[in-house]
Amino acid sequence: MRIGVFVCHCGTNIAATVDSEGIAARAGELKGVVHTEDIIYTCSEPGQQAIQQAIREKNLDRVVVAACSPHMHEVTFRRTVEGAGLNPYLFEMANIREHCSWIHADKPEGSEKAYDLIKMAVAKVRDLEPLYANEVEVNKDVLVIGGGVAGIQTALDLAEAGLKVTVVEKETTIGGTMAQLDKTFPTIDCSACILTPRMVDCAQHENIEIMAYSEVDRVQGYVGNFTVDIRKKASMVDWDKCIGCELCQQKCPAKAPDAFNEGIATTKAIYIPFPQAVPKRAAIQVDYCRWFQEGKCRVCERVCPADAIDYEQQDEYMQKEFGAIVVATGQDVFPWEEYYHEYGSGRIPDVISGLQYERMLNASGPTHGHVVRPSTMGQKDVEPEEPKTVVFIQCIGSRDESVGRPYCSNVCCMYTAKQAILTKDHVGMETEVYVFYIDIRAFGKGYEEFVKRAQTEFGVKYVRGRVSKLYEERGKVKVRGMDTLLGKQVEIDADLVVLASGITAADGASELAQRLNISYDQYGFFKESHPKLRPLETNTAGIFLAGACQAPKDIPTTVAQASGTAAKVLGLLAKDKLKTSPMIARVDQSRCVSCWKCIEVCPFGAPEKEELRDGSYKSHIIETVCQGCGICVATCPVNCIDLKGFGTQSVLDQIEEVLLT
Amino acid sequence: MAGVAYYPGCSLRHSAIEFDRSTRIVLESLGIDYEVVKDWTCCGASPAHMTNHLLAQALATRNLRQAAKIGEELLAPCPACYQREKNAEVEVHADADFRAEVNEIMDEPYTGEVRVWSLPEFLKEKVGLATLAKLPTTDLSQLKVVPYYGCLLARPTELTGECDTEQPMIMDQLLAAAGADVVWWNYKTECCGASVGVPNKIIQQRLSEKILSQAEEAGADAIVAACPLCHQNLDMRQHQLNDAMGTSHHMPVLYLTQVIGLGLGFTVKEMMLDKHLIDPTPVVERAIAKAAEVRAEAERKAQEAAEKARKKAERKKQEAKAKNVEERE
């Protein structure tokens, strides 16, 4: 056995706390080690060349690199040794950076620990045997979960490239949050005008199937071969017949809360969220329907010219196969009512969220774009009143640890500036508009100039400070806050207060993450595989991210990311076959007692009952399904399953090495 | 319920004696077995904790020690006392070294684990809102009240536990259980001026005046407080405040336990309503009388409706009979 050990300095990342040179020299004493070397940057081109040169010159048959986390560069070095003609699985990494130098301060102690880690890695490579990757067929269809602007962009890019795409959307229409917006910053172009044609493109594209009002129930399989259970929720309307004429909605006598208008208006129990909906199909909210609640009515059935109403409709379940999955489930508005009790917990009608105000500004919204005080809306004998003083409060549910949201929501500074400008535009320049802010984050292209325009051209008054309390007094909303630049308390009698509610993870995001087997952070946003190097991938191969489900994002960033994700998916599915990791479980059937514990615990369905020639059944691992997680190895009561490249014996050897020598 | 130690503190012995009496009467009628802490000392409120931390905590801890001789729970109705005792409880129980330091300067060491309760917290947790809601015998549904928490009952969260500092609800819930008409308002936790009224009257008057006018705007008959100092600023100084500010407020301020006691059937006299400078008696009596009228009116309507229904049923019966006869013929 001829082992080579390469110890990295990583500049001073490792060398500051670990004597790389000294421990490289000491490693030469270990059994089987014939070559040692310390390298300043092992992952650099000269570093990798040094490894390859040593393999060739010293005829090495095993390689250990002591450097950073295998998460970072294991793949890199496997390629390096393979390039020099060695089997890539005869290689092991010792993590002396994340697990050692970065977390210790004392150099002699750090060096000692690093040496222990190297000893363990050497013990492990002694046990390794060459492994060879398998290949699996790839399904080229793609599932996109979420039909907001992120999902739409990814779906269109993929479809244009010739892949079949299925978009699963939980609402009855695609469009997402962007469909609710009036204008977009910093250009003030109409949101619907740029989004709805893309929605139509989606619907008309021969390669795209939109499954609206549907949810992903279960995901099985692995990269290239996912099996997904999809549930189409009962809309009580036969969508093959429905023509989207809205007659049912006009005649329906039952009012229901209007989620699309963020609750500032009501819709009907049978509804189509907005005129440009795609698909434009009606659905019944059974909780508000007179037929379902009181057992009489059936008006929609009588007026429907297409005979599409079906009160007996049930959820439909189906199973589909995909090669890759893109998660684009977006975000929700921070539910400020539950947290900001000092702002009235939603009891004050003239205090609304940014997205509610957006609906009010929208020409197709409940007020047709007229800005009015909500307290004067929809009442008999009361003329809707325009506000004379409007106060915006930023950072609601953002940068606020007291509500568990220390992060910046990314879009609120800009949408507040936009709404402030639109207020002046809709109501008149004489309107008093105030913005309470912590500081202005206008980082994007043309953003800073946009905020400046709001301040100088439109005369929006920016007050630096937080508002401590909102309450009603004599028909006004009293805004009590602090101007921290003047060092003075301020009180404003407002007619309308708009809270720049931030972005929070979508409802049910963590449950979906569990179904997909991807990670999410403490706020419910999905985690990318690496923030710089793999920002579009998740840690589960074949599952990708797009848009605000990963972190708060504005539209330009979302669309850019969505296109990037499409490129990533195309890169993956350009191959006809995928190599699978050979580091998977293997059953020693001569010792298997057929208890089937492995089948019970495997999250991927890899073990199966295999009939032997004598008619008995033993466990067998389907190689293309196994992900090498090792759960069956730890579960097997007779230890007859082993993980290739990560054998039980090699683990014991490592322990022995570090404890007994 | 055995072994609840009761810590009155200085205010409840003198200026807020009606708070003390009403609290004790309510506790007794709810069957709570309490015992006054023997040989209690000052809780240290304001002067001690602004002077010396160790002294402040030791003063309060001494009372915990005395309470431990009765049981493991201490009820301190005055919010200032509650805050001081709770503060000591939290620090001394969590930090063994600090406990040793405190014990060093005390005559006798404290080794117990006494839990300190505020009055609203105690009533909600130990009696329960559902139980309390079943007990009222006097109808207070026509008495419009606004609960005033002040500063010490609701904050800081680290001491008061689950209580929401910006929008506390516990007094709202207790008053609703007592049968009163609880009105929503905006000044639940605004500062009344507290002890600043001693060195600088005008600041306290400005702050207290806002609370009174907000209560008026909300349409309240009375403010309900649970703090002797708030009560002093809002009730005792109300005339003074009116003179200084040129206002004419006449807003009675009741203690939480007085309202609960009234609901439980105790008289205005027993609840010592006559101790207040702004006499709440007329407001309370009017509300009780009005409730009786409303009830009588509702009963009369119910009777009328029943009578109507009976007549209608009879008519139907006769019609059916006639029809029957017709058919037979």
Description:
The complex is a heterodimer of chains A (661) and B (329). Chain A is α/β, with parallel strands linked by helices. Helix content of chain A is 28%, strand content 24%. The radius of gyration of chain A is 31 Å and the shape is globular. The model of chain A has no long low-confidence stretch (mean pLDDT 95). Chain B has 2 domains: 4-117, Glutathione S-transferase Yfyf (Class Pi), Chain A, domain 2 (Up-down Bundle), CATH 1.20.1050; 129-288, 3-Layer(aba) Sandwich (Rossmann fold). Chain B is elongated and about 105 Å long. The mean pLDDT of chain B is 93. Chain B is an alpha/beta fold and 329 residues long. Chain B starts with a strand and ends with a helix. The interface between A and B is small, with 11 and 8 residues.
Low-confidence stretches of chain B: none
Summed up, the domain count of chain B is: 2
Radius of gyration of chain A: 31 Å
Q: How many domains make up the coordinates of chain A?
A: 5
The CATH superfamily name of the largest domain in chain A is FAD/NAD(P)-binding domain
Helix content of chain A: 25-40%
What order do the helices and strands of chain B follow?
EHHEHHEHHEHHEHHEHEHHEHH
Provide a count of the helices of chain B. 15
CATH topology of the largest domain in chain B: Rossmann fold
What fraction strand of chain A? Answer: 15-25%
Question: Which chains share the greatest interface?
Answer: A-B, 11 and 8 residues
Q: What can be said about the biggest beta sheet of chain B?
A: 4 strands, parallel
Distance between the termini of chain A: 20 Å
Terminal Cα span of chain B:
76 Å
Query: For the record, what CATH class of the largest domain in chain A applies?
Result: Alpha Beta
Question: What is the architecture of the largest domain in chain B at the second tier of CATH?
Answer: 3-Layer(aba) Sandwich
Portion of residues in beta strands of chain B equals 5-15%
CATH architecture of the largest domain in chain A: 3-Layer(bba) Sandwich
Quick one: CATH class of the largest domain in chain B? Alpha Beta
